[in-house]
Request: fold
Amino acid sequence: MTNPATVPTPTRIVFGTDGWRARIAEDFTFDNVRRLADGVATYVADRGETAKGVVIAYDRRFASEHFARAAAEVLLARDIPVAFSSTAVPTQMSSYEVVQRGSAAGIVITASHNPWTDNGFKVKSPTGSAAGGDMLPAIEAIVTAHTGRPIERRPFDDAEAAGLVELFDPFEGYERYLRRTIDLDALRDADVSVLVEPLYGAGSGWIPRLLAGGRIRVTEIHNERNPYFGGVNPEPIRPHVDQALAIIASGGYDLGLLLDGDADRAGAADERGTFLHQLQVTGLLMYYLAEHRGLRQPVVVSVNNTSMAARLGEHYGIETFEVPVGFKFIGPKMIETGAMLGAEESGGFGFGMHLPERDGIYADLMLLDLFLRERARGNWPVSRAVELFHELAGPSFYRRIDVHVERAEYDGVKERLLVGLAAAPPASLAGEAVARTQVLTTNDGFKWFLADGSWLLVRASGTEPLVRVYTEATSAELRDELVVTGERIVRGG
Reply:
């Protein structure tokens, strides 16, 4: 006897900290991409901005270009002009195109650093920043309200022939845009050797091409398209970048520059192959802008980012702001405060002089410029420059782990943590008394501080079935103890 056929329940689409992501063919389907595109189209039309058009781009993940065309066909059926990327490009290139064109919005098909099994749908605001504020909730509400409604489509090729589609390649325009704030010729003329690790992603080829034609020697690895990402998550942190670190450690390189799968996140390594963690990079970029560029505008950091920002802010007279996790919070705060830097723990950095959105390529070029300027002061190699930096900024022993949970159990684990920890917060961590407890304003986690400024943060992810444990401590030993304590809290031990 067979079970009667059932009609599948439509996926409830909820935007996380950076768009919507899901497993390909399970929830991330063409139908759901079309539903999201319909939400964007309706939002744009309701605001009377149809003529401004929408930018659509995509990364190198499985079928990303086909999902992007599906989204475009929904917009085109509503007579909304589409600027469509002619190839896979870094996510921030859509931000650049939105700003340059004065578009009503941007759509990017990417799951950023998620596992290779996933894909995602990001929305950009007219400022180029990640959609936040009222924009994402409005689109989400439209998608929910339109559930079950038929969605019209206009064949992509037909619309292109009618002049509603413009294919774009952002490289030349982006290079010109960079030259306003970065001396590319000086970087090209530097007598250094750099290893670039794009993790098979959409950033492949960009840094070598931008730095071509001078004395600098750039070697790029893992630059072919591989939707499997070589079996690692395309996130520029250990252990995913360990192969690159080993190559650098074998000799012949002055530093390493790292990118994630859609190139909006940055990372770095010194000449010994030592990974510079994301909180260090936040501090180094803030130091660069203040010390070498002489800037004093505010800095915006996520709640899980470094305490070095506050210490550097005090030293240089720079106001710092702390916001919830996600560039949908950081970008708008940058615009509101006129910030020179916005930084999230996961390696995403935006710049007031550039874009209020993450740009891993731009951040990596700034790191290269920083270390070359430090070399001119006699602070070389890179490891020495970093050592001197910490004498000013203070210690930062950081670690993050992801505690994975079965998808079916995730809601229960999340509720247990958020309700249980609110009712009975820990009085001590790693044998040290908790000096202060901070409830995250997004109500998805807690941050506890010790007397010496070390902290532990536990936060439920908004995009994946996992709980993240973060810590920054004054010593490696305390860091490791806090991580163990945090994992025990998550697992209910």
Q: What stands out?
A: The longest helix spans residues 30-46.
